[in-house]
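Ticket #4471: complex job returned nothing on first submit. Input attached below:
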Amino acid sequence: MFCHTLLRLLVASQCLGLHSIRISAQATTPTEFPKGWRFPLELSQGPTPNTGTYAGWLSVGAMRTVLPGHLRAGVLLAPGLFGSQATGIGGARLAWRVRTFTTTMGSWGNLQLAAEHLWSTQGTALVGGGLGFEAGEIILAGLKAYLPYTTTGTGPVWLQFSIGLHLCRGKASPESEDPFSNP
Amino acid sequence: MAAPALVISGGGSKGAFAVGVTNFIRERFPEKEHTILLGTSTGALIAPLVAVGQLALVERIYTSVRTEDIITKGNVVSRLLGSTSLFDARPLARLIDNTWTPALFQQLMASQKRVYVTTVCMQSGEVVYWGNHDAPALNGFTVYKVRDRDEWIRAVMASACQPVFMPPIELRSSDGTPRQYFDGGLREYIAVEMAIALDATEIHAVALSPAQEAPENKRYTSAFGILEKTIDRFSDDVGLNDLRVPLLINSALRRIGDAKRKLKEKGVSQAVINACFKAAPDDPFQDKEEIPIHLIRPEAHLGGGPGGLTFDPTEMRGMLRKGYERAQAYFAAPPPTDPFIV
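Support reply: We reran it on our side without changes. The output follows.
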C-alpha cells in the first residue's frame, strides 16, 4: 500500500509538471540537495479522527543525500502526543526533490516529495507522505498525510502540517572555502 | 630601449574582446612584441599567457568555456549565511591549475618580459602586483615576485576573484596575519599607471567597458537591481580615474614637448629652453616624454551578464570578433586622446 501511495504521488507530481528531473543530463553540481548530511528539527501537528482531536510530535532527523540533487534518505526520532497519550516516535524518511526555485545567482529553495514510515511506542504505526518545502537550506515546511495502522487494522487518514529548520548550519572553514582545496 | 606594454582590464567573459584586440595587434605589429604585460581580473588570465606565447590557447579558452567551467552556483541564502562568496570558484581554480603547467610557469619565470597581475588585499586595502620579476614599490603599489608555481596560480586566481561573487584567496598568510586577496579591479581596473611606472615606451591598453553607455529606459524596481547597477557605477568610476590620471599626465607632457619645440623654432637656444624647464628633482614631468597610449575599448556594452560572469561561447566569439574589428578601426584612424573624454 505504501509503495502504491508513493507511486501515485510520483505520477501525480509528473502530471503537475513538477517532476522535471533528468538525472543523466545533470552534469553540474546541484544547488539543492547537495552532498552531505542535514539535521532537520520539525514540529508536526494535525487533527486525528481516531485518537480524539490531535496528534503532534517534535522530531529530530538525520538525512543524508544519497543521490545529489535528487534524493535524501534518513531517520527521525521524536517525542509526541497521540490524542492525550504521550508516545515516542521513530522512523525513516525518503525525500525526492521535484522542483528547484532559482534566481540568476543560484537557487533559493526547493519543493520535495516525502515518504515516511513511523513507529510509535504507543503501538500505532504511520505510513504516508506529502509535499515538503525548503528555503535557503534552513527553513522547512510540509504537508503530509498518514495512514495509521495497528496489528488490528487501519484507521482514517491523519493530516499533518509541519514547520522546522535545519540544525548545525555552521560557517565553512577558510580551508574548505579555498577553491584550491580539493579542486 | 623600447618597452611596449599590453595592459588588460577586468571584465569576466568580456575578456574575449581583449583577446580579439591582442590578436589584431600581434598580426598588425609583429615587430612590437610586448615586454611589459599587466592584467587585472580577466586580464590576469590573458596577459601572462600572451607573455609566454600562448595566445592560441587563450583564444581557445575564451571561445569555449561556459559559466559552469568558471563557477558553481549554490543555494543563495545558504551561501550568503555560511560562505565567503555567492559562488564556488573551484572550476576556475582547476582551469588555472591545469593551464599553468610547471613547464609554462618555468618559461614565465625565465622570461625577460615583465608580467604582473593586480590584486587588492582585503586587510590592508593595498593594490598588490604579483609577477615574475622583482620591482621596487611604485606609486604606492606593492610588488611581489612570486616564489613558486603555487603562489603564481593563487595570485592569478586572486586577481580574477570578484568580491562577494567569488571567494578571497589567501597569499603569504599566517594565523596571526591573514592576508586575503581579491580582484585588483576593486581599486585598479586597468593598470596603465603601473605600466608607466615600469617605464613602458608605448602602451596598448584594453578596457572592456565602453566610454559612455546610452541611457537606459527602464525603471529599477528592486534593491538587488539597484545594488548591481551601483556596483557597476563604482567600477566604471574606478576605471575612469585609472585612465584619467595617466592620460592627464601624458597630455601635460605633450604640451611641454610642444612648447619646447615651438621655442626652438623661434630660435631660442636649447640651453635656454632647458634652463626654463628645469624644475625641482621631484617634478613628475622632469625628463619624461609623452608615452603613446592606445586605449581600445568597445563602443557599446558587450554583454556577459552581471560582473561578466556569464560565459557563453557564442556570445564570447562575438566579443572576440568585435575586439579584432575595434582594434582594426582604431589603428586605421587613431582617435585623439583627450584625458577628459576617456
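Chain B touches chain A at residues 68, 72-79, 81-90, 92-94, 97, 153-154, 157, 166-167, 169-170, 178, 305-306 (CB under 8 Å). Closing as resolved unless it happens again.
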